[in-house]
Amino acid sequence: MDLETYIKDDKFIPYSIGFYDGKNVYTFYLTDYNTPEEMIIEAFNELLRFKNNGYSVYFHNLQGFDGIILTQILENNFKVNSLFKDGKGLDVPVQKGIFPYKFVNENNLNYVGPKPELKFYENITMEEYNSINNN
Fold first, then answer.
1. In what order do the strands lie in the sheet containing 11-20?
2. pLDDT confidence of 87, banded at 50, 70, 90?
3. Exposure of 69 by Cβ count < 10 A (0-12 exposed, 13-18 middle, 19+ buried)?
4. Which residues have a Cβ under 8 Å from the Cβ of 3 and sit 6 or more positions away?
5. Of 52, 53, 57, nearest to 1 (Cα)?
6. Domains of the chain by residue range
7. What is the pTM for the complete model shown?
8. Looking at residue 62, what is its pLDDT?
């Protein structure tokens, strides 16, 4: 499961959450819900539907703000068992794809258009930027 946010008034606002169940990708967008919490609860409800009954669900890379946001919502709405080692969550390295994380804000959540400028991407080369499709 992965959570995407934009920054407004120095706060991280979730605008998208998604997960992969081994066969299908499920994505949820804030524009389809009244609040970020409602969007996240719906994503968890889908993840925990009967088809997943009897399975354990593991989350990775929750030590940053994703973990703080998701843990608060989980604790308020679901029964949760956490997996920790020596008082810390297990650390699994994750490599995210190329995405203009600095571009997203509340006014362009449904943006369709040319690729954003290079300045909106983090840690990519000009060659990587040029390889991105322009639509």
1. 2-8, 11-20, 25-29
2. very low
3. buried
4. 14, 16, 17, 40, 66, 69, 70
5. 57
6. 2-93, 95-135
7. 0.64
8. 61
